[in-house]
From TrEMBL, chains A, B:
The keyword Manganese applies. The record marks 140, 189 as: Important for catalysis. Belongs to the isocitrate and isopropylmalate dehydrogenases family. LeuB type 1 subfamily. This is 3-isopropylmalate dehydrogenase. Residues 3-347 form the Isopropylmalate dehydrogenase-like domain. It holds the Pfam family Iso_dh. It catalyses: (2R,3S)-3-isopropylmalate + NAD(+) = 4-methyl-2-oxopentanoate + CO2 + NADH. GO terms for molecular function: 3-isopropylmalate dehydrogenase activity; magnesium ion binding; NAD binding. Binds 1 Mg(2+) or Mn(2+) ion per subunit. Keywords: Amino-acid biosynthesis, Branched-chain amino acid biosynthesis, Cytoplasm, Leucine biosynthesis, Magnesium, Manganese, Metal-binding, NAD, Oxidoreductase. It is an enzyme of class 1 (oxidoreductase). It comes from Anaerosphaera multitolerans.
């Protein structure tokens, strides 16, 4: 019995999660595995119901599960709430409480969607990047505050990492790279930041245990540039929380298919899976959302949390087939598209 | 008499600066203005000569000038020096000592170079962005250190801004936007960082004095994405030191002409002008470097430090003409190009 906590969240969250469940149900059917779903509230939805973006009830549900599937959080409705109570804060607390320190954001070019990239075809040939972003430290969780200093309102946020935090995410990146092209690029700002220098030091040490992996270093400004100019250069990008946030969004656009990009956030035992796109309140409830990133996040869940690589591939293959046969969602082709539910049906049909 | 301190720096620095001086000499000739040049060392060149990337001698030369023209700093040779003595540190100290808090990085598409962008033509139509980056604060100048905590090596860097620092750069952005499309986008991470929240607060207040300017807000991850997906959205981007570093490099690639992008760093009375590209040691001394960004940086110097807008336009027009007539540098067309000196001669010829 595999227990999955399901957090639909806000905006298009509920409808894309419903689609993902249809796919998981079909997987149960064809592979004779048992999933048990339990449902919790998060983000704005949880604020409206419990006055807290990550209530204790939800935490309990997640902690008694083997994996968590998340839709999306946030929306204008909650934008003016004080920051400790905002939907995003719920997401950060969720990550922390599950201990998921490794955020994996694959960015690949779907052959059938090549033309969707803003980049010219010759620039995106062979692009297949895995961003390994540290998710439980850095400026997201460091000291912060607002004080009055020499009569002036002053605010600060601290980037902070210790060697243990760096080592565990570095190991992750090297392990992942073994399954890929054996290349890790550490992205940092070591010409300015002390924390970056510690990253370099620790990552070099970890690299000694992975002689077959090529390690190189790149400043974050240069990386933001190379992602546009020569994205095929990268295999695994290893980086801190905030740089990973920025670079993974940039990379997703380069792929031309942000509506298709899943993510996995992993810790010692728990996995959190979510699409990398947001809650898109403007199209919520209209059967226009692209459910494929969430469906592909289920594939990552099967692979990483349940070691069901075979079934993961079945889902990934089904999605690729649907795209290759020319089916499109609204974000990919606003003239000729299938609705959220209809494209899901096409995927489900192809799972056997 | 206009006094210009000239810091050639490392790599291609000396040769591109020599070209810029040829252009300035021609401007002296045609416009009867007098420039007085004085030369100082910076970066690796200064380390080799004085054991310090920004020696007192250089500081004195800069401070007695009306404006500073800089080539580029850095190179592998100095990469293993301890961080307080690295070439980059010289650059940061230079900025601080001149009090240049506003870094202006224009990013425009040259009609004749449209095809050089990695982005498809329909994505870069009408792109003309001015990035206004805060240059004297934030994580570049905050507290940092490495300590042992609970037995673990721990490093930290602090992002810190007070309302005065934010206000002065915000005013700059609004003033600049008045000369453009009257639109300012503040880029921050206000859903996570306290300093970003202070930026929003202060910038909103400054905006009240500029009713004709449209102000909006964007998270930095989204901005990194929109620069690829819809760069024409932006007019002025106002942001902190580190986000400005990342986004301006990304934007420069989008333009397809990083070898052409100048920058100005301005303070109460001093201006520092430099190309945004680096020192490119691999092509140094080969007459291959593109001098146009440095030449265009002189145009910015004329405009901002000497109020010689007419002469600035003469330079800009000369560069555009050279490009429109089909002349290219090595970075733009590695098959059919003019050398560093030869393209400069073409520019000089067109200044009358
Ligand atoms: C919503 C926000 C706090 C979050 C982040 O910055 O981590 C998001 O951008 C993401 O990347 O998952
Ligand atoms: C060399 C480095 C310290 C510098 C910076 O980060 O400011 C450079 O990248 C720049 O943008 O001028």
């Amino acid at each position: 019995m595999k227990k999955i906590a399901i957090l639909k969240g806000d905006g298009i969250g509920p409808e894309i999660i419903d689609c993902a469940i249809e796919v998981m149900d079909k997987i149960q059917e064809v592979s004779k595995v048992d999933f048990e779903y339990s449902y919790g509230k998060i983000g704005g939805d949880a604020i409206d119901n419990f006055g807290d973006p990550y209530p204790k009830e939800t935490e309990a549900i997640c902690k008694s599960a083997n994996a968590v599937l998340l839709g999306a959080v946030g929306g204008e409705k909650w934008d003016n709430i004080e920051s400790e109570k905002r939907p995003e804060k719920g997401l950060l607390r969720l990550r922390k409480s599950l201990g998921v320190f490794a955020n994996l954001r694959p960015c690949k070019i779907y052959d059938s969607l090549k033309d969707n990239s803003p980049l010219k075809p010759e620039y995106i040939k062979d692009v297949d990047i895995l961003i390994v972003r540290e998710l439980m430290g850095g400026i997201y969780f460091g000291n912060r505050g607002t004080v009055v200093e020499k009569g002036l309102k002053t605010a600060f946020d601290e980037e902070r990492y210790n060697e243990e935090e760096i080592e565990r995410i570095a190991r992750y990146a090297f392990e992942m790279s073994l399954l890929r092209k054996q290349k890790v690029t550490l992205v940092d700002k070591a010409n300015v930041m002390d924390s970056s220098k510690l990253w370099r030091e620790v990552v070099k040490k970890v690299a000694e245990g992975y002689k077959e992996v090529a390690l190189d270093f790149m400043y974050v400004d240069n990386a933001a540039m190379q992602l546009v100019r020569n994205p095929a250069y990268f295999d695994c990008i290893l980086t801190n929380n905030i740089f990973g946030d920025i670079l993974s969004d940039e990379a997703s656009q380069i792929s031309g298919s942000i509506g298709l990009l899943p993510s996995a956030s992993l810790g010692e035992k728990m996995g959190l899976y979510e699409p990398i796109h947001g809650s898109a309140p403007d199209i919520a409830g209209k059967n226009l959302a692209n459910p494929l990133a969430t469906i592909l996040s289920c594939a990552l869940m099967l692979r990483y949390s349940f070691k069901m690589d075979y079934e993961a591939k079945i889902i990934e293959r089904a999605v690729e087939d649907v795209l290759e046969e020319g089916f499109r969602t609204f974000d990919l082709d606003s003239k000729n598209y299938l609705g959220t539910r209809e494209i899901t049906r096409e995927v489900v049909k192809r799972i056997k």
